[in-house]
Design goal:
Low-confidence stretches: none
Structural class: mainly beta
Strand content: over 45%
Radius of gyration: 17 Å
Largest sheet: 5 strands, antiparallel
Mean pLDDT: 81
Strand order of the largest sheet: 4-3-2-1-5
Distance between the termini: 45 Å
């Protein structure tokens, strides 16, 4: 891992995504590297689930994306799903599918402006209805 890489990490049992902006090497044997992130958080190396220089590699099933559509000049939200074996973005405003890998890599039609991991979404959601445990 290096400065500039994106990480998917655990903080208080919630998965988040951030960019590495600093690395603190361990001072003593048995200590872990510590990483500072651009979201004003940080984590030990053992709390990092995955890392990559390309943020699209850290987008997982059920993550919520905030996307800018270049063709229409507007933002919308979508959820990452698998449709016919391909990772797609399902637009919340309709039933449009976008091929995630192609669209993000090429940035021909869309730009990912924000990511909310599915764990963050579940944690932050105000729950009005709670299903009782099945017996």
């Amino acid at each position: 891992m290096k400065i500039g890489d994106y990480v998917r990490y655990k903080h208080l049992n919630i998965t988040r995504i951030a960019k590495i902006v600093g690395i603190i090497e361990p001072e003593y044997e048995g200590e872990e590297k510590y990483f500072n992130f651009d979201d004003d958080m940080g984590a030990n190396e053992s709390d990092i689930i995955a890392y990559h220089e390309d943020i699209e590699r850290l987008i997982y099933f059920n993550d919520v994306l905030y996307i800018y559509d270049k063709d229409f000049g507007k933002y919308y939200k979508g959820e990452v799903q698998y449709v016919n074996g391909l990772k797609r973005i399902i637009n919340y405003l309709g039933d449009d599918y976008l091929n995630l890998e192609y669209e993000i890599i090429s940035e021909e039609h869309i730009i990912v402006a924000g990511i909310l991991t599915h764990e963050e979404y579940e944690d932050r959601m105000y729950k009005i209805f709670k299903k009782e445990k099945e017996e």
